[in-house]
Design brief:
With 573 residues, this protein is α/β, with parallel strands linked by helices. The chain is built from 22 helices and 25 strands. The strands form 4 sheets. An 11-stranded mixed β-sheet has the order 14-13-23-22-21-15-20-19-16-18-17. An 8-stranded mixed β-sheet has the order 5-4-3-2-1-10-11-12, sandwiched between helices. The chain has a 4-stranded antiparallel β-sheet with strand order 6-7-9-8, covered by helices on one side. Helix 1 packs parallel to helix 8, helix 3 packs across helix 4 and helix 18 packs across helix 21. The radius of gyration is 30 Å and the shape is elongated.
Length: 573
């Protein structure tokens, strides 16, 4: 399930002439029986609501007084979300003969045509209050208090995200909380203004319209809707058309050689995910995402993250987590990943979160040689984004869940063919090789197309500490082997590289220099094109002796990675 809650207005939506019919009540009970939550969002005061609707306990939470009060019918508690009405305002309105006049815990309410009298009283008393209209009703509340603010309080109390809740209403005061939900619905009798802004308009009126909505969600969940644009993230554009992804859609694979733009694309997606209020869990084998704004990083180069700590953080809808796996040996990473994923599956079933799971270096965590039963992956994996160099190195059971492939770099067609071979499908025809900043996009079952990728708004910072003193895996480390392969000296970071470079013999140093091995490592493993270009200039010089070229490469590294700390093996400042 993706839609785990329904928030509904009362009068004119659930109820007609204050009454909810038996068919509507029965549908609400079926919705609850499916494991989903029901929230009532109404302008009525609680005693009045209980008088006209004795089945209030069917709701998990009630937002009363147009956002001013939160109620737990089962728990029997009622919590004001705003200060009580000013006594001097109530006294002034009574003195002016405003009737009827209802005074709740946070609200003062009357009817048209008293709005001018109410407004003058607020102005004369110098109060910071607002008037909210609802089909003739005139409600006075503190500034900023409305159905949307009360709806947010109910979601927070239930541990739900608005992205996983559909909301339905009929009148002008419903607009705020409908737009704050993942899926905004108007019943057929709703005001034209509300229908115009809704993602779905029911064919039936009032309670029958709510029944129609409930049956659609029970039968098709999120597929009952065309997922609105505000519930999607943009990966790029094709011409003038946005290319977007939905957290309710299948898995996404972004693949291509190092330096092709995978990290930049991942950063742009993560930036949007956090910015749009979705929850994300990032699996980060190499420490590339620990500085992602709006996230909590668990684990560091010395300490492995604990699965329970990851789950504890993600229990809160507004917490995003980066799982830093640098401290783990490559062989131990798949097991920890599988254990966390099993718990994330349970959390998703309960809350619909995290909405997105971003798996960098997916071949580390989902290796092709690991048995499928050990991975415990779902057949359909909504909201998963996998990044890898080579799809052929990723578990076929993970690739089977991929619905969208974005292949980057000059070898994009080869990447596409490797993916198709892994999933047993014939590759589509390819329009052209992607240019820098583009990807070859293939949605399975359709044709391939070129997409211009979106760049992140914030410049990606170099991960100085990771590359200077972190633990790069064997596949990312540099090995001094010499011209006859007699050596096997591993540099797992730049600090060790410089230390080994000082100690190897001149023949070994020059062997790798002439093969352009140093610049290739800087470009592919360190992911620093500027450093690679500077080292390549030294390699291209040709006439450099071992002493001069060593000094040149060392200086290039130290300029970017905090001299003299790198050379001495200290932590960069």
């Amino acid at each position: 399930m993706y839609i785990l809650g329904l928030a509904t207005d009362y009068d004119g939506t659930l109820a007609h002439d204050s009454r909810v019919d038996d068919a509507t009540l029965a549908a609400m009970k079926r919705f609850k029986a499916s494991g989903r939550k029901l929230i009532l969002v109404t302008g009525r005061e609680t005693p009045d609501l209980e008088r006209v609707f004795p089945h209030v306990a069917v709701f998990d939470r009630v937002v009363a007084e147009n956002g001013g009060v939160l109620v737990d019918p089962a728990g029997g508690w009622r919590r004001p979300l705003a200060p009580p009405p000013p006594e001097r305002l109530v006294a002034a309105l009574r003195e002016k003969g405003v009737t009827p006049l209802s005074v709740g815990q946070t609200i003062v309410a009357t009817w048209e045509p008293h709005e001018e009298t109410v407004l003058r009283a607020i102005r004369d008393l110098g109060l910071e209050l607002q008037i909210i209209f609802n089909k003739g009703a005139v409600m006075v509340l503190p500034a900023g208090v409305n159905k949307a603010s009360g709806f947010a309080a109910a979601l927070d109390d239930l541990g739900l995200s608005a992205h996983n809740v559909a909301a339905v209403g009929d009148a002008e005061n419903d607009h705020a909380f409908l737009r704050a939900s993942g899926f905004a619905v108007a019943v057929a009798n709703a005001l034209p203004m509300l229908k115009a802004g809704a993602d779905l308009v029911t064919e039936a009126r009032q309670g029958a319209g709510v029944v129609e909505l409930i049956e659609a969600i029970l039968a098709r969940d999120v597929d009952a809707f065309a997922v609105p644009e505000r519930e999607r993230i943009e990966i790029g554009v094709e011409g003038e058309d946005r290319v977007t992804l939905s957290p309710a859609g299948g898995a996404v694979l972004i693949a291509g050689a190092s330096g092709g733009g995978k990290s930049t694309t991942a950063a742009a997606l993560a930036e949007q995910i956090v910015g749009q209020g979705f929850q994300v869990c990032v699996f980060d084998p190499e420490g590339d995402h620990v500085d992602l704004a709006g996230t909590v990083a668990l684990g560091d180069p010395q300490t492995a993250p604990r699965a329970q700590a990851v789950l504890d953080q993600l229990r809160s809808p507004d917490v995003n987590v980066v799982v830093n796996l640098l401290a783990l040996d490559a062989a131990d990473r798949p097991a920890l990943f599988s254990g966390i994923m099993a718990q994330l599956a349970a959390l998703r079933a309960e809350t619909g979160r995290p909405h997105w799971i971003l798996i960098d270096e997916a071949h580390h965590l989902l290796p092709c040689e690991r048995p499928a039963h050990a991975l415990a992956l779902p057949q359909r994996w909504p909201g998963a984004i996998l990044l890898t160099v080579d799809p052929g190195c990723v578990s076929p059971s993970a690739l089977a869940a991929v619905e969208n492939l974005f292949a980057l770099g000059a070898e994009a067609e080869s990447v596409l063919r490797a993916f198709c071979a892994a999933v047993g499908e014939a590759p589509p025809s390819v329009p052209a090789a992607p240019s820098p900043g583009q990807a070859l996009h293939w949605r399975r079952g359709g044709g391939a197309r070129l997409v211009s990728l979106r760049a992140p708004q914030k410049k990606i910072e170099r991960h100085v500490r990771k590359y200077a003193e972190g633990e790069l895996g064997p596949d990312k480390s540099f090995f001094f082997r010499g011209p006859r392969g007699a050596l096997n000296l591993r540099a797992q970071n730049l600090t060790v590289f410089l230390q080994l470079a000082e100690g190897v013999d001149d023949e070994t140093w020059l062997h790798h220099l002439r093969r352009h091995d140093y610049s290739a490592w800087a470009r592919g493993a360190i992911k620093d094109d500027a450093l690679a270009d500077e080292i390549a200039a030294t390699e291209d010089a040709g006439k450099n002796d071992a002493k001069t070229s060593r000094a040149s490469v060392k200086a290039a590294i130290e300029r970017r990675y905090t001299a003299p700390a790198v050379a001495r093996g200290r932590r960069p400042a």
